[in-house]
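Notes from the 1:1 (GR / supervisor)

We went over the backlog. Supervisor wanted to see one worked example end to end before approving the batch request, so GR pasted a single chain during the call. The sequence is below; no edits were made to it. Supervisor asked that the structure be written out right there so they could see what the output format looks like.
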Amino acid sequence: MLDEQYKKGNVSSKYYAYLYDRVQRNNQEEQLYGTQPSDDKTGNLFDSNDGIILPTHLADPKHVDEQRKQVGLEPLGKYYEAILEMLCRPKNIT
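Structure output shown during the call:
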C-alpha cells in the first residue's frame, strides 16, 4: 500500500525511505537507505570506542549513498554524524 502511494507521488520520498527501512529492519531484512542504526546484542547504538554502529544489513552497501540521494537524503556518513551531534556524542563512526 505504501509503495503504491509512493509511486503515485502521494508520499514524501524521505518519509518513504525511513518507513521502508524501519519495516525492513523490524522484519530482519536488509535496509535500502540505511536510515535505521544497528545495535549490539544489548540494544546499545554505540560500540566500545563510543562510535555509532552503522547499519550492517544493507541491500547494496556500495551504492547506499546513491540510493539515499535519489530520495533526497544526505550521504550515510553525514547522516550519522548529525545523529551523533544531536546526541552530544563525539563524531566516531564505525
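Supervisor's comment: The CA atoms of residues 55 and 86 lie 18 Å apart.
Batch request approved.
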